């Protein structure tokens, strides 16, 4: 039987040319129903004394995505003042946000931070310097704080660049410094009512379980006022066929057991918090690109598409793999890596973008060499659809490299309607802040 849809969202191939004709290519595509289902799965995660789910908005900061997520009941974890202000501009109150940042705001930004905190934003202290600068303000306004702790434990991420708990990562107050920060807080009568540890993205679930044990240990030792314990995010998502996704029910059951045991040992009930981003949106997204050229060398056949590393930098940054589907101009699905189909009749192609950069490819090996993809051979004008791109693609990529413009984005609603949620950047926006200086 001929397949007509593909991927976790069961995307109908016939929609691809319709979207391309209406909004052009390249273009980002999101699926509302998938995002909402992901939110519901997380909210139903087993827990002992309550569960609070925050969405790590750095994964995808589009205001429509933020509204879908928060309307389902998730709050936000923000990585910068600008992220918090951006979410507020989308209609989300600061009382639904926590700020976990490397920034040390001063001047106008410091005043902005204080206003946000007074409006209900939770401040997650991530360094000694941050604590020293916020302490008097927090005391004067009787504000409880959160602390992100650096556990000094490696292996929490899928790769070294996504490991945020090792000694080669600088996120949070290192466990060695926690007693000093806590002593200073005690002197000022300040309370840390929440403790947070995030060890990395997409790593081994066993490391996530170990983090639960480790974190509860130092909550018991150092944080008598803590009522909430955040185990971070990083829940692994299976983008490619054959990858194993994190079993959040099993992880939740383990956390529930350990928090229950903590209550039995200490008499303290802790609310659990998590802050996933990828799990919520990654597999909701696709990038639709059009084949604009075909080339070959002595070694490799190439397809050149009209969107590459400036739309999706994860292959170049992390060596990440994303599934590829090939769709004809008439909407016929030629081949899809999502499906376990025979490789007979397929051909190897290096799929590359239009940037002047040798790493501009949808698939690279650990040395940065282009890895060919087995696909049904398409023609110029057909579509290459890149899956698993709902997270850390449009929110992270260098869209103006080579002065390419950031593409628009489309959302498929629960009713099946296609709506544009962001326009394509106009050329003038690339250079609108440049000054016409005469030298």
From TrEMBL:
UniProt modified residues of type N6-(pyridoxal phosphate)lysine: 58
UniProt-listed InterPro entries: Ala_racemase/Decarboxylase_C (IPR009006), DAP_deCOOHase_LysA (IPR002986), De-COase2_N (IPR022644), De-COase2_pyr-phos_BS (IPR022653), Orn/DAP/Arg_de-COase (IPR000183), PLP-binding_barrel (IPR029066)
Pfam families linked to this entry: Orn_Arg_deC_N (PF02784)
Gene Ontology molecular function, alphabetical: diaminopimelate decarboxylase activity
Keyword terms of this UniProt record: Decarboxylase, Lyase, Pyridoxal phosphate
Span of domain Orn/DAP/Arg decarboxylase 2 N-terminal: 44-282
Active site, UniProt feature: 356 (proton donor)
Keyword check for Metal-binding: no
UniProt KW Lyase keyword: yes
Cofactor names: pyridoxal 5'-phosphate
UniProt cross-references to PROSITE patterns, sorted A to Z: ODR_DC_2_1
GO biological process: lysine biosynthetic process via diaminopimelate
Name of the protein in its database record: Diaminopimelate decarboxylase
Organism of this sequence: Geoanaerobacter pelophilus
